[in-house]
Amino acid sequence: MEEVETIIIGAGLSGVACAARLVAQNRSVLVLEARSRIGGRILCPEHQDFFADLGPSWFWPMVNPEVSALVQDLGVKSYPQFEQGLALFETKDGHVQTVSGCPMEPPAFRLEGGMMALVKGLLARGGENCIRLDHPVCEIRRLDHGCRVSVGHLDQPPRCELTASNVILALPPRLAAGSILFTPDLSYDLSQAMLKASTWMAGHAKFFALYDRASWRRLGLSGQAFSQRGPLGEIHDGSGAGDTPYGLTGFAGIPALRRKDEKTMSRDILAQLAQLFGSGAAQPLALYYQDWATEAFTATEYDKRSCHNHPEFYPPGGRTSIWNNTLHFAGTETAGQFGGYLEGALVSARRAAAAV
Ligand SMILES: Cc1cc2nc3c(=O)[nH]c(=O)nc-3n(C[C@H](O)[C@H](O)[C@H](O)COP(=O)(O)OP(=O)(O)OC[C@H]3O[C@@H](n4cnc5c(N)ncnc54)[C@H](O)[C@@H]3O)c2cc1C
User: Fold this and answer.
1) 134, pLDDT greater than 80
2) What is the pLDDT of residue 307?
3) Helix (H) or strand (E) holding 139
4) Which residues line ligand 1 (CB under 6 A)?
5) Which domain holds residue 186?
6) Any domain includes 241
């Protein structure tokens, strides 16, 4: 059985940031990632060197010290969210009117290379070789000294088993409680606390449409739109820092349980973009759509009931480590500050790496 000092479960921002910290201290680390890609909720399909954020797009330098420091440290370029001009408001019956823009406060910034630039930048510092993709963890068993981690599906014999002195759960606690078998049982209170920590944005769907011109800007529009009709509820300019491509991006306004399949949603999104911004908006160079509620390694059934208000996050049951300090919580939903955001993912990674 393979042995390693620390196993990190999940190669989202928190897992990769934990790994980078431990690798920098010459510690032996393995990151087990269920998906066949890195990034978790960070997902940036590439179109001609532009990376379209289908997960997080923004950070807020004024209130995100960890992200800002990482951006600077990695030398990633950031640029402000385009917000100049009027916004649009679409009523339930499809009536569209211009309204004054609603700039974000504090100001939001995007990254050249998309948010994936953070994950790639962290991995480039030496963690690349410790990632194992397509390794869904299904069971964690406490041993006298450390833990045994099984990879695979619970209804089949494990694909592989590994032991480690420390295990870091760098995934949403609700997902961990719902999909990983813990032996011995986690306490009732801890399991409930984990299940109740809703996974931020897991119930949402996001689109990104790319164009060679920003026709809305020429009309004095910021690209920002709010709709009571849908399928999109909120739209923003998603253009790159310089020239093409320009972009519109935003969130479906329809709750997860009522959303249709990707083909139907894409058709309806293009029709709505044309209604708001003119017929050219229905012919993007590329259209991307991601329904996070259908992603088994992000959302659970509980997340399909939309959670629009930002919940208070904290370590589950107040615990940052359990099992005699061998099993540690990371992941943005376990952060005491900025939970749910990229900032929280980095805050939790710093804490978990220090605990190891
Ligand atoms: C649509 C959307 C928009 C957002 N917008 C913003 C924004 O503008 N600004 C902002 O700050 N934040 C935003 N967020 C939140 C941000 O994406 C998260 O805070 C951050 O990415 C969470 O990182 P994480 O590492 O904690 O979790 P995750 O990214 O969820 O990583 C968890 C990892 O664990 C893996 N995993 C799950 N189960 C297993 C298993 N059993 N075995 C092994 N691996 C497993 C997953 O595949 C995943 O890679 C947004 C999120 C979404 C979805």
Assistant:
1) yes
2) 64
3) strand 137-143
4) 9-15, 32-35, 40-42, 55-59, 136-137, 170-172, 175, 179-180, 200-201, 204, 206, 292, 297-298, 331-332, 340-342, 344-345
5) 1-42+115-202+309-356
6) no
